[in-house]
Design brief:
This protein is 79% helix and 2% strand. It has helices spanning 5-47, 53-60, 62-84, 90-101, 110-137, 142-171, 173-189, 200-204, 215-238, and strands at residues 106-107, 209-210.
Amino acid sequence: LEDMPFLAVYMCSLRIRWSYFFLCALFTALALFAGTITELFFAVFATGDRLEFQVWLSFWMLPFGAMLLALVGDEMSDLVIDAIDRPPLLWCLSLLLAALQRDRRLAPARSSCELVDASLVLLTELVPLIFALRGFLLRRGFWHGYMQGGVVAAFLLTLAVLLADLAIAVHGLHAHQALRHIYHVLDKHKIFPGILSVRYETFRSHFEVVSTVETDRTCKRLATLLYWSGRRLATVLSD
C-alpha cells in the first residue's frame, strides 16, 4: 500500500466512512429497540390488572427482544472495530466468503469473489450516493441524504453478516476452519473489499483446489443472502 498512495487514501476513506456509518446505525438500533422495550414495559403497569392479550404477549416477549438487541448490538460493535482496523472490513469479508464456500481446502471461485466485491462496493458507494442525490433533489441537503444512505447500507451489511454468521454456525467445524483460513490469507496480503478480485491470484495460491463446480451454487447463496437482508430491512422500515 505504501507504493500505491491513491489506494491507501481510498482505504483510509473506507475506514472513516464505515466506522461512522456503523456507529450511527448502532445508535439508531439501540434507540429503536430500547425505546420499544421501555414503552412496552411501562404499558403493562399502566393498564393495571386489565391486560389485553396483545400487551400480555408483548410483555412475555421482552426477553427475546432484549436478546435480539444484544445480538444486533454485538454484531454492529464488532463491525465498528472491524471497520477501524487496517485494512478495513477483513472479518466481514471473511465471513461472507466462508459462508459461501464452507471448506478451507477450496478457494472461492473468481466469480464468487467478484460478486462479493461488487456487492460491497455497491453498498459502500452507490447506496449512499443514491440517497444523497434524492436528498439534493428534495432540497433536504446532499450530505443529509448521504448519511441516511450510509446508515441504510450499514444495516444491510449487518443483516448480511448476521446471516453469514448463522450459516457458518450451522455448518460447524469445516465452516469455522474456512473462516479462520480466509481471514489469515486476507490479513497477510492486506486484501480489503474492492480489491479482492484484483488480487485473486495471490488469494487463490493459498488454497489446495479452486472451486469451479460450486460457482453457481455460491452465487445463488450470496444472492439469497442479499435478497433476504434487503427484504428484512424493508419490513423493519415499513413497520
